[in-house]
Amino acid sequence: RLEKARDSEIPDLILLDVMLPQTDGLTVLKKLRASARYGGVPVIMLTAKGGEFDKVKGLDAGADDYVVKPFGVTELISRINAVLRRGHAPPPAGAGEKSVHKGLTLDDSRHEVLFFGSAFEAGSAGGERVELTFKEYELLRYFMRNAGLALSRDRIMQAVWGYDFEGETRTVDAHVKSLRRKLGGAGEYIKTVRGVGYKLD
Fold this sequence. Notes:
With 201 residues, this protein is an alpha+beta fold. The protein has seven helices and ten strands. The radius of gyration is 18 Å and the shape is globular.
């Protein structure tokens, strides 16, 4: 199907079902993200699999959002609009600057995250590059810009995803779990605040 799509116009957004005949949506998503033509097109995954592990797999593969069936048309349209708004939004305040927290350095100009363990100092050569999805990067940046503050899941959802749906704060939990794992030793900087949400310690 991707071969046929090469002759068509590049879409503004792709709705991709996980369960497809002959292949699966995650495989297609990985091909899209590796494609020079479609790599930058936002993708919303549609699936009947609502488990946390399934969500994390989809988000790690590069999905911009993950909608579980059954869903309402109004919700889907809102999510589509939110993703499209993010694509046309002006750079956030402080874009292009570096944010440093303990051994973590987030460089907006290069859109990369470096972790400097005990053997390195932040800002020196030798840091380990941390590979993050777009949304994980945005989440870490939000934490670093609000270091020390207890952030509710609803507040994180609104700031990073641009919308707030009741019950969808599980998306925040799935991203935090994935982010902690990818940050390795630095993942312990992200603390759970019981009854509230999270904070970067």
